[in-house]
Structures are given as structure tokens and as C-alpha cells.
Amino acid sequence: MALLLPVLASAQLSISGKVTNQSGEALPGATITINNPAASVVADATGKYGFTNLKPGSYTLNASFIGYQTISKNIVLAANQVINLALVNGTLAAEEVTISATRAVKNSPTAFTNLSKKDLAKNNFGQDLPYLLSLTPSVVTTSDAGAGIGYTGIRIRGSDNTRVNVTINGIPLNDAESQGSYFIDLPDLASSVDNIQVQRGVGTSTNGAGAFGGSINIQTTTRRDTAYAEINTSAGSYGSIKNTVNAGTGLLDGHFSLDGRLSRIHSNGYIDRATSDLKSLYLSAAWYGKNSTIRANVISGHERTYQAWNGIADYVIGDNTRKDNRTYNELGLMDDAGNFYKDQVDDYLQNHYQLLYDQKISSKLSFSGALHYTKGKGYYEEYRRQDAVANYGLTPVIMGMDTIKTTDLVRRLWLDNEFYGVTYALKYQPQSNLNMTLGGAYNEYKGAHYGNIIYTKESAGIGPNYEYYRDNAKKNDFNIFYRAEWHLNKVLLYADAQYRHLYYNFYGIDKNQQNAQQSIELNFFNPKVGITYQLNEQNNVYASFAVGNHEPNRDDYVNSTPQARPKAENLKDFEAGYRTVGKIFSGGINGFYMLYKNQLILTGALNDVGGAIRTNVPDSYRTGVELDGKVRITSQLNWGITATWSANKIKNYHQFFSNYDDGTLVEESFKKTTIAYSPSLTGASIISYSPVKGGEIAFISKYVGKQYLDNTMNQNPAGFNIAPDNQSNPYAANRYLKSYFTSDVRLRYNFSISQVKNIGLGLQVNNVFSKKYEANGATYPDIEGGNMVNYNYYFPQAPRNFMAMLSLNF
């Protein structure tokens, strides 16, 4: 031992490792230093570093990189050591500043779910964005084409997408007039998303239309410090295929970055003639300074889909003798021989331009703002058999001995619109336990609605591309909000108040050949308060109260006159819950009571010109309990689960049924009834097992309870029975969607080789047990011959189907 001591004293040791950010991405060019004696190295292209020829002893290891906080570690070196260093974003995390003004934070008294880029990538096989959110609490998704590609829908707590506020980088996505969010216009957006927050209820103040069921806040790609290239291809059932190419420069010269994506998605759809051809582009250029960041985004999408939005008639889907009873799409049918019009399509191009700016003014004050412009133009084209020329403002044409009153024709209904404005937020943190935000937006919308006849079978006395209506609209939307959070030991006090002013007008001739001209001005005040009590580091309880107001949509105004104009909707939202975060279990329980005043729903009533309208109901509510949690059973086995129990009711409700026998309306009254499309129970489960490093097997289940298609709870007016022809067909006899329980299996395996950072293989089998179910539908009941007749339409979803995926990351 004495002879070996001089050898040990002169031993040459080493320190090595890898420098990454918190997402695990390498940080080439990071500087690593040690003392005693002072030395420094620079991380290589893969983020690796190393010090050699070191003597045993104590060292201080420092790592730094622009835009990140310097990290220090004290080391006692007695043997070779591998020390990996993960750097945290610096004080100015620019892209987070841009959108945090409209988001809930960790302990906010709000019900929300955060999804990371990694969470989204696991399920991104090509289906539309709502399907990537389907496992979050209280969410129900639907697909017109039946397989998740094409037109899809999302409901949160039973509220459809016109009542769900959606923003991209804090900029409103909802259409200013219809108030819906059409993710089909931005195909494969998920491949350029860094994270999403889904809020339920009114939530925090945001830009755009009010959140009556929830809000979806999307943040696109943030800074990636190393250059990359990614190729992703998915293919599967119904001719579905997705091709995506992503690439980025990483951080150049410590200041610049450029990211881009190209995507193409095609699917034939499960439903007949429900094809989708989707293309999209994403470009993002950013400049990073010491205290400021500028980012410019271009997001473009083009969709061309064969129309499948009417669903399948009850007499077809209920006919089990037909092989196509679950897939038959009658839209575009031209003649009795069964020929279909090949261009019965929806065709729309939408381009988004965003300029985001963030500035750290001082250690206590920061500013974020955005300029945006969106241009959209497109049409839906349809074949009309023997349509009356009078419907198009035309006088019947006399040809010889014949008077042309009807003709086969093809028409296009156009929308040409633009949306632009500014959003901003000024954040002030005078002390560590108090932060305040002053934010808001001003946006303008201009939309031209017009229709053309591009073909007539018989001459109707018109020239080519005849325009038969035009209705122009303009909407100005201004809002300003103030929010404060005050931490008092274990208590967080939250207050948020928003003022919103709207001006909306339209004028011209509408598609029903009616003179359409209205001007509307609305003012809303939306206060919110809440409290969170931190029981300990892992557990908290919270409660909040929020007020939301929501304007009627375009159809509500167009289908009414100023004298019969609907009122704005009002919501008072009470929430309370408990959250816990632990090594074994993380989750929470949330209770809600959403009290509506003047909620707008279809009641069967007609307006003063005889058209079906949505009508204000004075008193309705949604109340329920939401559960979500994730348990780590072993290091390899995890189980996540969500469930919602709810009651969704209208008090003192009146439904009207048209009586075609005498031209009257038959009224039926209900003391309390269930709101349509509002299941009382929904739930989801995902059991994931990782048998090997980089591998995962997941079993995913989804349950959605019974949903009524109208607000009658399937009851008929007194004295009227279901028509005999309907009685034997459950799809015609009833006005509801049956509950359904579906299961999917997802397999993923990721590995790397020397020249490829990651190779990903994936397989998703949807509806593995081929459950026959309908996720959506519509009903148009009336009275004929003294009997109740239902005209129901359903959207069947695909039986067992699959998508396989290959991704390469360089």
C-alpha cells in the first residue's frame, strides 16, 4: 500500500458529459469551465464535453449558454466522473411571455390541462387536432368522414366549438362571424406546436370570442438551439397518408433561428365520397437579443374535401339489408341512375401572418405584443336537382311552348374574408409575491359572402358565373383586461376583469334573396376572482367565480330582424377543486356549476319571416364533477384516467313542432329537460407499458354517454305518436345518440443509430373491437298525418382501422 500511494497521488482523472436544455436537446457551443486550475472547453456538435489530466480534489464546474441560466456544480473528484448538465431557460423566455397573459399557471384557481409537444407527438398519426385532445377531461370529438381526417368537431362540457375560445400564440383563431374554429383549415398544425393548454369553463381572460365551455390556447414552435431535420410518414386505412418534413437551423450566431414545415394529408374517409386533400406550410424566423425577441410566423393551409356534413339518413342507416347503410353519402347525387357530381366539394385557402415581439424593460417590467393578419378565401360547390329559378332572383324563361321554372344547376357559395389586429400584454412584478398583467386586443374582420351559378342544365337566361347574392359584413372587437395574483404565504388571491366592446354590421342580399342589413353594438364586462390554498408543496385546494358573455353568431342575426334580434348569452361559472402532485400519483378533482342566462338553442320556433332560429332560453345550467389522474404503478407501467359526471339542464323549456297538416306549430312544455349533445358521463383511460427503453405499448379507452339530438329528451308532443313507418327503425323512432365505449391500441418504439438521432416506429389501431357507433347527428322532427315523424341524420364512425408511422430525426 505504501508503494502504491505515489501512483494514486499522481493519477490522471477526467470529467465528461453532455450539455442539454430541459427538453433534452443538445446545446453545441455551450461553454464549460472548471477552477483549480482554471480551464474551459466548448461542447461539440452533440453537446458533449470533456476535461482530462485532472488530479484528485475539489472542483467547481460551470456551464453557460446564451439564453440560459448559468449552472454550477461542486465536485469532489476521486475517480473519473460523467456529469450531464441540463440548462434552464434564462429570465426572458420569450415565447412563453407571448402567450402567458392568457394562460393559467401552476396554482391558478382554474380547471386546466397542459399538453407538451411530446404528449401530442405520441398521438399524431395524421388525425385532426381535436383528436389529439380527446383524452382530456370533459372532451367529446366527432368526425364527419368517420376516421378523424377532414371536418372534425370538439365539445368541452357539452359546448360546441362556437363556444370554445381558441388562440394561436394569443391570437384568436375562431371565425369572427360563425365563431367556430375550423382546424381543417390548418392541417397538421400539431406538428408545429410546442404545447397546448385546455381550460374548462370561463377560464382566464383571453382574446377573441368568449369561452362558454372552455378554451384552447396553442403555442407554436419555440426556440430549438441545434439544427435539425425531421421526416414523418404515416399511412393506413381508407387510403390515408400523411407526409411531413420539418427542418430548422438551430441558433445561428447566438441570435437567429429559422424553422419550417411542409405537410400533405390525404384520406378517402370511411364514409363514401368523404375524401380529404389537405396541404399546409409553417415558417418561423426569430431574432433573440439580450432583452428582446422578435418572431415572424407564416401558417398556411389549403383544404379540399368532398362534402360529408349532412350525415346519413335514419332510413338508410337503419336498413341492415344495405351493404352501405353505414357509409352511404347522398350529397352530390345527380340522377336516378346513382351518378354523383365529382366536385361536390368544400375548397378553402387560409393564410396566417404573425409578428410577435417581447421586450424585457426592467427586472420588474416586461412587454409582449403581436401584429397579425389572416386572409381566407374559398367556396363550397354543390349540384342542385330541379331547383326553382325564383330562388336565385330569376324570372322564369319562356322557350317556345315551355316555361323554364326549374332546372338542374351547380352553384358555388363563397366566403372571402380578412382578419387583422393587434394583441398586447404589459407585465409588472413589483415584488416577488405580486404580479400584474394589463392586456388586450383590437381586431377587425371583413367578410364578403356571395354566390355564383356556374352551370345550368337548361338556359335560365343568365350569363356565366352569375352572382345571385352578396352580403358584406364587418366586425370590430376591442377588449382590455387587468389581472393580478397576490401570494400571501400559503394563499394565492386571484382577480381578473375584462371589458369587451363589439360592433358588427352587414348589408346586402342574402342567399335566401332577402334584404339583409343590420347593425349591432354590444358591451360586455367579464370579472373573475379566485383563491388557492397551498396545503403543502404537493397539494392545494382552490375556488373561483367568473362571468362570461357571448354574442350571437352570424346566423342568429341573419335569420332574424332587428325587432326579433336574439340577446347575448350570459354565464356565471362557479368552480372548486383539489390538486395533488406526487411521485406515485398526480391528479385532481374539480366541481363546476355553470349558470346560463339567455342561452341560445334551437327550439323549433320560427322567426318573423318563417325561418328556423336559435332562441334564448332564460334559465339553464351545467353542473358536474371532473376527475383526472395518473398513477405510476411501476417504473414501466402507468395508468391515466379521466371522468366527468354532469347534469345539463334547461328549466321551463318550450319546444315547437311544425304541423304540416294545418300549417301550425304544436308546443310542448318541459319543467326541466336535458340540453342536447350533453352526455351525463364521459371518461377516458390510457394504460401504458414500457417493456424496453424507447418502447411503449398503450391501451386507450373512451366512453361517451347517451346524447339527445334535441332538447326534448326524446319525448313527443302530447297526443302524437311516432309514425308507423318509423316505429320499427330505432334510428328513426328515437332522437338520440346511444352511448359508446371504444378502445384503441398504440405501439411506439424509438431508437437511434450513428447518423440518425432518432428513428421512430409507430402503429395505432383505432376501435380495435369494431364497435358500431355514431358520434354525432341531427334531427328535424315534424307532424304529418297526425303522427310524429323524425328526420334524423347520423355520423357513423369507422370500425377497426389503423395508421402506421415512421419518423426520422437528424
From TrEMBL:
Residues 105-214 form the TonB-dependent receptor plug domain. GO terms for molecular function: carbohydrate binding; siderophore uptake transmembrane transporter activity. It holds the Pfam family CarboxypepD_reg. Keywords: Cell outer membrane, Ion transport, Iron, Iron transport, Membrane, Receptor, Signal, TonB box, Transmembrane, Transmembrane beta strand, Transport. It is a multi-pass membrane protein. The keyword Coiled coil does not apply. This is TonB-dependent receptor. It comes from Mucilaginibacter ginsenosidivorax.
